[in-house]
C-alpha cells in the first residue's frame, strides 16, 4: 500500500505540481544537501524541480552542512536537510525543532588497495596503515566502528605514537591514488569520489559491518512546522526521493549531473561530473529510501556503535522519528 501511495504522490508531484499536491504558497521551501552521495539521493527531485513551484534546492560543501540546521536565527535554517546521521543526532536528536523522515543513503565507504579484504581475512589489516578521508568525521567513525565490529584494535597515528604491528594504524589523509606517497597501505574513501582515483576496490565497509547490508548514513530531516503545515508536500517530496533510486539506474549520466550541478551553492566544484560519474559509482553510493519508523531500530543501533568509538554520545529521542504515514 505504501508503494502505491508513493507512486500516486510522485505522479501528483510531477504532473500537477506542488500546488495540486497540497503545497501552500505562503513561503519558499529550502532543501539542503551536501555534495556527493546525498546529492545523488535528491537528483531526481532536483531534475523535476520547477522554477515556480515554491521549492529551492541547494547542494553545499559537505563540511558546511551543519550550519544549515544550527543557525540561531531559525528562519535561516533549512526546511528540509540531508545530513550524516550522527550529526543529525548531535544537533537535532531531541526532536524539538526537526524530525527525522527517513534514510536516504545506506553507506558509501570503500577500502582501496591491492589485496582484497573480507570478514574471513580482516586480520591481515593488523600492522597495516589505513589512510582515511576525514578521519575525524563520518568516514573515520565508520572505519573505527567496522574495525571494532570485526574484533580489530586500531591506533591513531595522529596521536603521535609509533606504528603498532598488532593493530590497524589509522591516518588522516587527503585522497590520492599514490598510496606509497601517502605512507599508507590502504585508503578509505567515499563513492562517488573513490572511483575517480582508479585504485582497486579491496572491500566495501558496508559489507564488513554487521550483517553486511550497510548502515543508515545520510538521513532526511524536516522542520516540525513544515511537517505540520505542509504534510501533503512532505509526503510528495518523500515519494520523489523514493522514486529517485530507480531513476538513477536508467537516467542519462548527463541528466543526473546536470540536475545536481544546477543546484550547487556558492560556486563549489561538484564531486562528480559527466566525465567522472559511472554506473558503478551510482550503485556504490547505496541510494535508496527507508522511512523513519522502518529504520528506527537500525539507526539507534548504529548510533550506539558510533558512540562507542567517538568522544561523544549520539543519542536520539523517540520523538525525533516521524511516525506519520509516508
Proportion of strand residues: 15-25%
Question: What's the number of helices?
Answer: 12
* SSE sequence, one letter per element: HEHHEEHEEEHEEHEEHEHHHHEH
Strand order of the largest sheet: 2-1-3-11-4-12
Tally of DSSP β-strands: 12
User: What would you call the structural class?
Assistant: alpha/beta
Rg of Cα set: 20 Å
Shape: globular
Low-confidence stretches: 1-25
Distance between the termini: 10 Å
Helix content: 25-40%
Report the average pLDDT across residues. Answer: 91
Main beta sheet, described?
Answer: 6 strands, mixed
Short description:
Helix content is 36%, strand content 19%. It is an alpha/beta fold and 326 residues long. The strands form two sheets. Strands 2-1-3-11-4-12 form a six-stranded mixed beta sheet. A six-stranded mixed beta sheet has the order 7-8-6-9-5-10.
